[in-house]
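Minutes, project huddle
Topic: does the predicted pose make sense with uridine-5'-diphosphate bound?
PN asked that the exact inputs be recorded in the minutes so nobody has to dig through chat later. Recorded below.
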Amino acid sequence: MTSQILSDCSALRLLFLSTPVAPLGTGLGGGVELTLYNLAIEMTQRGHRVQIVAPEGSQLPQSADAAPVAIAQIPGKLQTSAQTQHYTDPITLPPESVLGNMWDYARQAQHDVDVLVNFAYDWLPLYLTPFFQRPVAHLISMGSLSAAMDAAIQQVARMFPGTLAAHSHAQVDTFPDAGGFRVLGNGLDLSRYEFCAEPENRLGWVGRLAPEKGLEDAIALAAQTQIPLSVWGAMPDPAYWQQIQQRYPDAPVEYRGFLSTEELQQDLGRCRALVMTPKWVEAFGNVAVEALACGVPVIAYRRGGPSEIVTDGETGWLVEPDQVAELVAAVDKLGQIDRAACRRRAEAHYSKQAMGDRTEQWFRDLLQKRSPSAIAQTFG
Ligand code: UDP
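Predicted holo structure (tokens), as shared on screen:
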């Protein structure tokens, strides 16, 4: 590593390795897709060189004010997402694994980059870390879900201090040995989100339509209040959606599909509130910040990332998890929330620039740790 790379203003060469569960642009990768896109654009605008490695068929939205980021399109079978597995399940990879192929690409490309950045919630990149000659930074996107992953994370924390980052303290606390993470939060390009002062009388729910997201509780809320609920998001399992609709036949609910950020923010902005009803410890909850950026208050269970994003009584309401009656009570109090305060909160804490600063510092710190002089000091 040269001293030039370590200086605080030198351009970095970054290789971003995406999630292997779906091509970028499908929404099936969840919040990772937006996080990776925002960081790629932000780092490019700062003069760093970014290349993305992602499953074949990946697409990114075009940014008006940044050059397109190159994507190495990797063929292979997609990985099953960790949320569908049990804690003690063994790690499995399909034949012709796209995850294996992506990391084989990384192995060959590593000599042209300063940092490899892993966005996948998978065991293989953690396990492979010591086999790489370049530092691997792991942005872990979910809480503890797998014993094998937990062990691999612990090993990386021990062998390569400073290389692990997460989105929230609540997420970090789910891991058995919670030390060793840098908490980065997240950030958005707020210029893509328009403030809406005058909402319609409807509520919004955004996310993958999957059991861990607890859509059924938001639908129960719609059934009780008879306030229309708009639902947006990728649908990995249509049977789950049909089943919860049948449970609440009188709920005024409309599924509006998986939209681009531009379309989503326009429609979401007109809601009285975003309702977040996760059944798991949500690592962050990009959608909470997206709602605030539009001036939409957030009603969320006091659990995981949203409980760190929402200021109770100021930018929304935090309620006892799994209590639909409390969601109803929170809707009654929405008049107390100032929508302009929601937008201000997003601007003060969740801009793409602020996230870019924290992330760039993380890369520079870990390069510093790996510099020959730092290694000599440790072992000298
Ligand atoms: N999303 C979108 N269009 C939609 C619905 C959702 O682009 O119609 C995106 C949303 O912007 C967010 C992601 O889907 O980035 C959901 O991420 P979140 O962090 O809320 O949850 P995850 O799926 O990662 O658990």
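Observations noted during the meeting:
- The longest helix spans residues 352-370.
- Residues 1-6 have pLDDT under 50 and may be disordered.
No decisions taken; revisit at the next huddle.
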